[in-house]
Amino acid sequence: MSEDANILVVDDDMRICRILLRYLSSAGYTVAVAANGDEMRECMQSFAADLVLLDLNMPGEHGLDICRNLRHTSDVGIIILTGSSDKVDEIVGLEGGADDYLVKPVEERELLARVRSVLRRILTKPANDSSEKKSVLLFSDWILDLASHELRSTAGEDVRLTSYEFQILAALVSNANKILSRDQIMNHVKGRDWIASDRSVDVLIGKIRKKIEKDPKNPALVKTMRGIGYTFTARVTYGT
């Protein structure tokens, strides 16, 4: 993929901003910086960001609140880049819509690999393939379009999904009534390196349930198979 994307760094530490600006610019990206949420929103009025690198602990509006608000209004990629190694912050950040979470200090090559991974999912459109069978899956009160990466209700309401959420939901729906282990689910998610102890799948399943289940605490569509994985139990039909 060509390094042709816009990245917005949101961090109140100007030293960090200068380092990221220099490194990401040298990798071919167009980079802008902002010191807080207000500056970020002002910048985004004229700067078409594809990805936001977001710090958490900034004066005023906390990064987690910025992340949640940004996800409600935009499909931009979000990588939380913070000094906080608190697992709670990581889980809340992922639940709030972040695509990835990195703890400072981060090795430059790893940062670039994570940036490329998120941008690849955001900017790469699925190729049109006339031999592909059905790309629209219907279940319960939902319409999942595999070609356009969209989820909407039968009433016409669009639901925002992060790239990870979409890939996991697509894997589950496409394999309805089959049990998928966490490893199998991980294999369906492109562009992310998982480790055996990674519980992000469970976090993402929880986020998906909040968006498609009538009662997320008592899910009827995505069932947990304890000790095994998950299964999608709704009847799935194909549309056009």
TrEMBL record:
PROSITE patterns: OMPR_PHOB, RESPONSE_REGULATORY. The modification 4-aspartylphosphate is found at D55. Coiled coil: none annotated. SMART domains: REC (SM00448), Trans_reg_C (SM00862). Residues 134-234 bind DNA. InterPro entries: CheY-like_superfamily, OmpR/PhoB-type_DNA-bd, Sig_transdc_resp-reg_C-effctor, Sig_transdc_resp-reg_receiver, WalR-like, WH-like_DNA-bd_sf. CDD domains: trans_reg_C. Residues 6-119 form the Response regulatory domain. Signal peptide: none annotated. SUPFAM superfamilies: C-terminal effector domain of the bipartite response regulators, CheY-like. Keywords: DNA-binding, Phosphoprotein. Residues 134-234 form the OmpR/PhoB-type domain. PANTHER family: REGULATOR OF RPOS, TORCAD OPERON TRANSCRIPTIONAL REGULATORY PROTEIN TORR. This is Response regulator. It comes from Candidatus Marimicrobium litorale.
